[in-house]
């Protein structure tokens, strides 16, 4: 199962319309740590997380990067009603991610 990739405009539209919780994984294609983090997220998603999960290449998201003050990648941003409520830069373990997204 792959995480649905969005562009910045689609994510902004989604955050305006979204009520409830969601998560966005910011990455870059050449980042090895991002690839590991994405794999951990895929495992957590397959295990049955309860919130929608999206990914976004930070190179194509300058407005959100600045607005949400994303300092580095990988970065998992938890949203509630379209607003960031938590940023996680350390993908500690699949279990940690799963519990965060449950």
What would you say this structure looks like, in words?
With 102 residues, the protein is α/β, with parallel strands linked by helices. The protein has a single domain (4-101), classed as 3-Layer(aba) Sandwich (Glutaredoxin). The chain contains 4 helices and 5 strands. The chain has helices at 8-17, 32-46, 62-67, 94-101; strands spanning 4-5, 21-27, 53-57, 75-80, 83-88. The chain has a 5-stranded mixed beta sheet, with helices on both faces. Strand 4 (75-80) and strand 5 form a beta hairpin. Helix 2 crosses helix 4. The chain is globular, with a radius of gyration of 12 Å. The two termini are 17 Å apart. The mean pLDDT is 92. This is Thioredoxin. Residues 6-88 form the Thioredoxin domain. InterPro entries: Thioredoxin-like_sf (IPR036249), Thioredoxin_domain (IPR013766).
């Amino acid at each position: 199962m792959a995480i649905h990739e969005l562009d910045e405009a689609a994510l902004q539209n989604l955050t305006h319309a979204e009520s409830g919780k969601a998560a966005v994984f910011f990455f870059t294609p050449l980042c090895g740590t991002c690839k590991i983090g994405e794999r951990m997220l895929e495992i957590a998603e397959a295990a049955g997380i309860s919130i929608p999960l999206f990914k976004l290449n930070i190179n194509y998201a300058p407005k959100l990067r600045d607005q949400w003050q994303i300092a580095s990648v990988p970065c998992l941003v938890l949203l509630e009603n379209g607003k960031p409520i938590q940023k996680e830069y350390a993908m500690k373990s699949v279990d940690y991610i799963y519990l965060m997204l449950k």
